[in-house]
Amino acid sequence: MTLLTGRFGRAIxxxxxxxxxxxxxxxxxxxxxxxxxxxSLCPACFVRMHxxxxxxxxxxxxxxxxxxxLGRDARCVSCELHPPPWSKARAAYVYDEGSRDLxxxxxxxxxxxxxxxxxxxxNRAGRDILERADWLxxxxxxxRRLLERKYNQAALLARAVSRLSSVPVxxxxxxxxxxxxxxxxxxxxxxxxxxxxAIRIRPRNAETIRGxxxxxxxxxxxxxxxxxxxxxxxxxxxxxTVCLLAAARTTPDTHDDxxxxxxxED
Length: 266
Ligand SMILES: [Zn+2]
Ligand SMILES: [Zn+2]
Prior knowledge:
Layout: H1 6-23, H2 43-48, H3 77-81, E1 89-94, H4 97-108, H5 114-125, H6 127-131, E2 135-138, H7 143-149, H8 153-165, E3 174-175, H9 188-195, E4 200-201, H10 206-209, E5 213-221, H11 225-236, E6 241-249, H12 252-255
Parallel strand pairs: 1-6, 2-5, 5-6
Antiparallel strand pairs: 3-4
The chain binds zinc ion (ZN) (2 copies).
Residues 28, 30-31, 33, 41-42, 44-45 line the site of one zinc ion.
């Protein structure tokens, strides 16, 4: 099997997979049932996904009940009281039973093609922020995690959104020089402290992003502490505005579940 490791092996396996795609019927990206189109969901999985539409908070993207009274800036009460550092946030789906398999298998199980499905809805949900964006910048992972997983799922999502929106990706604009602990069990204050200085702009990239409008891309938006650290790094480098675009976000109903291991921000 040693022959099938390294770049050569990857190429062979990729060719094999491509050949299989030609002869085998496409399957649902979530459950594996047969479907008509590649990179799609079967009807049963499709109805379990909950896209976030209006009304939602303009600043954090959380879905709101139809009867909600929105403040002057269409923000939720939490954003009115404690405004996050970014300008606007959009998330494609509610992070729940329906979207979880698709996102976690993108993150941990090499199902990189799931980025294509998620990006379609991210492109729809984020249309207004993408129209004004100069760069898509993925939330970075620490190199050790990159070695474990072989890819950064946020970068895959950013590339897939870029193909649909034509906004270019600046894949290594940010870097994570320090590995952070799993943030799930931390209080808000501890999380902010842990993230301090954990993310920075690569010095050689500062000039390229100064004065630009950036959309920061991530897979799951939970507490927002990672996104806040990225936003602060970008704003201190002179970026004009930072908006967020996530494949899914937790809602007030799911926030209590934040200690679940699959919801840890990393
Ligand atoms: Zn399915
Ligand atoms: Zn909000």
